[in-house]
Amino acid sequence: MIKSLLVANRGEIAVRIIRACHDLGIRAVAVYSEADRHALHVRLADRAICIGPAAARESYLNGGNIISAAVHADCDAVHPGVGFLAENSEFARLVTASGLEWIGPAPEVINLLGDKVKAKKMARDLGIPGIPGAEIETEDPAAVRESAARLGYPVILKAAAGGGGKGMRIVRKEEELENLLVVAANEARAAFSDGVLYLEKYLEDPRHVEIQIIALPDGSVRLLGERDCTVQFNHQKLVEETPSPGLTEENRRAMEDAALTLFGKLGYAGLGTIEFLIVNGNCYFMEVNARLQVEHSVTEMLTGIDLVGQQILACTENRLEVTGEAEIPNGYALECRINATAPGTVRQFIPPGGFGVRVDTHLYEGLEVLSYYDALVAKVIVVGRDRMEGIRRMRRALSEFLLDGLPTNLELQKAIISSTVFAHGDFGTTTFDSILTEEKR
Amino acid sequence: MIKSLLVANRGEIAVRIIRACHDLGIRAVAVYSEADRHALHVRLADRAICIGPAAARESYLNGGNIISAAVHADCDAVHPGVGFLAENSEFARLVTASGLEWIGPAPEVINLLGDKVKAKKMARDLGIPGIPGAEIETEDPAAVRESAARLGYPVILKAAAGGGGKGMRIVRKEEELENLLVVAANEARAAFSDGVLYLEKYLEDPRHVEIQIIALPDGSVRLLGERDCTVQFNHQKLVEETPSPGLTEENRRAMEDAALTLFGKLGYAGLGTIEFLIVNGNCYFMEVNARLQVEHSVTEMLTGIDLVGQQILACTENRLEVTGEAEIPNGYALECRINATAPGTVRQFIPPGGFGVRVDTHLYEGLEVLSYYDALVAKVIVVGRDRMEGIRRMRRALSEFLLDGLPTNLELQKAIISSTVFAHGDFGTTTFDSILTEEKR
Amino acid sequence: MDKTELYELLEWFDKSTLSEIVVEKSDTKVVMKKGGVLPGDAPPHLPPAETLISDEAPKTKEGNEVITAPMVGTFYRAAAADAPPFVETGMKTKKGETICVIEAMKVMNELEAEFDCEIIKILAQNASLVEYGTPLFEVRIDD
Amino acid sequence: MDKTELYELLEWFDKSTLSEIVVEKSDTKVVMKKGGVLPGDAPPHLPPAETLISDEAPKTKEGNEVITAPMVGTFYRAAAADAPPFVETGMKTKKGETICVIEAMKVMNELEAEFDCEIIKILAQNASLVEYGTPLFEVRIDD
Asked: How confident is the model at residue D48, as a pLDDT?
């Protein structure tokens, strides 16, 4: 067993990883930026090393300083957490090159999965269909019309060169196509100096579901159930639940088979997730997250398995202590992300608690929450025997949640969890966008 | 389902019960003394009613005011919690006479079990042996010597009329008997105006184990596993765990059979515990706790069953949702009681958290903890796949526990949990008395 | 100002950026404030429970005594629905005279004046639930 | 104002963001207050992370400058074990001259003086780990 692990992250996820280390008897070394001097992960770690100024690119993204800290503090391994350098294959390579163990899949695997086009192609070659699409010749509207007809409306035009919504247009009818083609191409050219467009089937208000696995490089893959991340607002995951309220057994089996095939083929190490969009009973592969995810705690709450501990064991001991399907009991788990909506200093903080409730947070009274980093300040996770019990418990937990001095989305979360739409379980990734936007009017 | 329940208690247990109500969709009405105006249970309840001044006998023991509050606040039921009026059969009778449901067994059952001599006799009649003993004639030392020889040394002399250690003497050898008989009788006479003594087998450093059940008056009894409460300091339970580290399968079966027989015979309603002392592989019945217990959360943590919710259902709906033995999974749960050792105002409070850790507490920053009531301020409960994992997690949790401004037994708990004696699991109810007293020297 | 008007006002004020509002209308006066306590006040986040252990009867600003409920129950100003109230505002009452009853557990508990005094104000509503410590009467003690 | 009305008002007030409300109506006066957060409140229990966003170099009490580590690594006062230290206490050094090296990722990073100065004190131990911001030298800038 390793003796000492450096946690290359901050916030609640750093706290989570430090706890996993201590549960395993491993010494935890924290790193922090000057802005995080008083952060909870710094307090809970056995040692903490300052790695740079507030700006993330000079601290939490400063791989050199992080690796130096790990080497000099006699660490055996580096856990990248979520975000920052977690899916940076070059950082992973440097970590292993420095004689440290990397808590994640091999750098080449990260690299492959990080290229969304390659990943999609690999999945397709393994019989896992992605969202249908086609590269198109903007200059040849007739050919584009033919491609669009083949995919079926609505379709979406995307700039091949970039993202962020630039050069992106939803086309709902053939009549609109020619016009929007010009608009999108111009926008793409302006934004990326490249007017090449890509045509994709537009999935209307899909369900967003992911399968959690843990694997070893020898091809062993254990399924740890699904998480439904359909409740989103402005494309941000807000609520996660397991099992999904809108999944056929057929969908589930298809996604699980895909997970077993893909991760087995990759020789993947540790925790991973494969994400799908589901529309009209069809599952479309979206991407693989080659790391721990924020919402891993939903799976922990239902299964009682310490995912982070298991991840560390898988990546350092090449060992799995879970057997797979037997691990997923009946029941239901639900998570709400509490995000700060502006900086502030925590004046009073009494998080919910008691039976069936877990709160992962780095907040405490007196902490100043600055605007440098992620807005996530707490995750409230509940377990219930069924979905209704879970929802009732979450309502209770959110109503207990007392936080003064820091503006958050708590009221938004209460509105979602209390809504009949959520209770019915029949919604897509954009449902709450329209409901909540309408409510505001 | 009832709509509204009055919680006739304070502190962490009142918070626990309010949460159970809210999880069931029941309105929770709190009562409080003037000293508890700012207590967490007052804040979390849907309504709170002041029932008297700080002194418990005028507030939390003032049954009249509590029942008036329940009636006037349109409550359907009263939950007495732990301590205060929880085992007061007259209060239970008044509650039911006022048309309110009582969350506990029938008043007559409480009454019977409250009389320790009657309860012991009933158990004996059902084939559940208690600690062997005999009433003795102080004036006839020869007969006493004979009784003592029959029980086997060591024996203990107790005043028949009272408790509190007065008139109590451990006799280790026959040579000491005659002398101590006089001493004890004199002491008893001085304290209780009654020199009558009772002779009992003295159990040397026994294990203290209890069986948790939930039952319906029709005689259905469901076993919910055992709790080992052997770690005590000055006869106060400090640490509770399940399963017990020092129990043969035979012991377990004997105690479970006793629980099924006794509670079935009683026509018992709701949660109950039967307590045993175990020495040399023999289980001796001690008493029945006709109520919820502080350490119920240990069972909750292992089984995932909301005991308080189930108790409310059993007593108001006459319904059990648990099936029994199937409910106890493999694994291990452990609880440490954090007690205040002096009054104080909570300056900083960051309780532990994360995977496998639950903290039940009524503390928050700014709360003034006065000396009127119970010293218990928090329970830290952890779950693990086995005892070693549970102990490691508890060590982690206690090391995270940050509480400024209020002196507690936290360091004592750390010492116990880190001790090799605790790790080995081979100890009795007085083991930690001697270890910790020696350490102090 | 009727109830609907009051709530409209509340709602409006709550959304507004005003920090204080005072409304006086015939026999009605409404004051609303938002935000801070004055600097120099500086209470902790939660007021500690320090005021509670006093045995002295509470006093009003004018130095009058306040008689509070000694138990939880229903406060009645009269012995029966059709009986006259024990005391009225402005009345003088003697030590030992009944000033109200509190019904608890189906028992009518008569509350007696502990001193000769004048009833300045009746603070609790007839037939309402009173908690322990609920103010019932403001009185001026006769010298 | 009867009990139901009062209760409604209470409930409303409780949910609102108001901190205080006073209602007077004929013989009734209702005052409700909430403990709000104080603007300009006393500092919290923990020192906030306020010192951090300054770009200015830290200064000692005597007004000297402190040169801090710009990266994480091992601090060396000399280029090699047998070489003389780059600077010693009391020495004057010129802008651009190497004053130490910090070894990170097996690379020796030479740290140069950013101004002409006199070395007053050497604050870090040779061959020790320095974090970002660890004080290395106290220096007096030459005018």
From this structure: 34
Distance CA A291, CA B88 (A): 56
- Asked if the C-beta of B359 comes within 8 angstroms of chain A's C-beta atoms, the answer is yes
Residue C44 has a pLDDT of: 28
Do the Cβ atoms of C1 and C25 come closer than 8 Å?
yes
Do B365 and D45 count as a contact with CB atoms less than 8 A apart?
Answer: yes
The CATH architecture one would assign to domain B207-440 is 2-Layer Sandwich (3.30)
| Average pLDDT for chain A | 93
Predicted pLDDT of residue B162: 67
B97-to-A310, B49, B64, B101, C17 alpha-carbon distances in Å: 56, 21, 12, 9, 53
pLDDT band at B240 (very low <50, low <70, confident <90, very high): very high
The CA-CA-CA angle for residues C129, C133, C136, to 5°, reads 65
Distance in Å, alpha carbon of C133 to nearest chain A alpha carbon:
27
Cα(B149)–Cα(D19) distance, integer angstroms: 75
Q: What's the pLDDT tens digit per position in D13-36?
A: 666 656 667 777 666 666 666 543
Cβ distance of B23 and A355 shorter than 8 Å: yes
ipTM of this complex prediction, to 2 decimal places: 0.80
Any chains having at least 3 CB pairs less than 8 A from chain B are: A, C, D
Tokens of C102: 């509190």
Q: Please tell me the number of Cα atoms within 13 Å of B346 on its side-chain side.
A: 29
Q: D40 and chain C: CB distance < 8 Å anywhere?
A: yes
Least trusted range by pLDDT, from A368-382, B323-337, B419-433, C89-103: B323-337
> Quick check: C27 pLDDT over 70?
no
Is B370 close to C45, i.e. CB distance below 8 A?
A: no
Is A367:A351 a contact under the CB 8 Å cutoff? no
Interface with chain A: mutation pick from B296, B323, B355, highest number of A CBs within 10 Å: B355
State residue A161's pLDDT score: 73
Q: Does domain A4-103 have CATH number 3.10.450.40?
A: no
Contacts of A366 in chain C (CB under 8 A): none
In this structure, what DSSP letter does residue A338 have? E
- Distance between CA atoms of residues A319 and A315, nearest Å: 8
d(CA C87, CA C93): 8
Give helix then strand counts, H and E, for chain A: 15, 21
> Is residue A76 over pLDDT 90?
yes
pLDDT band at residue D38 using 50, 70 and 90 as cut-offs: very low
Mean pLDDT of B266-289: 95
Query: Which CATH number applies to A132-201: 1.20.1250.20, 1.25.40.20, 3.30.1490.20, 1.10.286.20?
Result: 3.30.1490.20
Neighbouring-strand partners of residue B131: none
Q: Determine the angle formed by the axes of helices B107-114 and B249-266, rounding to 10 degrees.
A: 130
The band of B311, judged by pLDDT with boundaries at 50, 70 and 90, is: very high
Q: Does B366 contact C133 at a Cβ distance shorter than 8 Å?
A: no
In chain D, which residues have their Cβ closer than 8 Å to the Cβ of A74? none
Residues of chain A in contact with residue D35, where contact means CB-CB under 8 angstroms, are none
Answer whether B4-103 and B207-440 agree in fold.
no
Maximum CA extent, chain A:
65
Amino acid at C91: M
Residue A97 CB partners (closer than 8 Å, separation 6+): none
| Distance (Å) from the alpha carbon of C26 to chain B's nearest alpha carbon | 34
Distance CA C136, CA C72 (A): 12
Q: Which of B10, B27, B222, B291 is catalytic?
A: B291
Give dist(CA B295, CA A45) in Å, integer: 30
Could you tell me which chain A residue has the CA closest to the CA of D68?
A52
Could you give the CA distance from residue A353 to residue B363 in angstroms, rounded to a whole number? 12
Interchain pair A360, B353: CB under 8 A: yes
Name the β-bridge partners of B130: B285
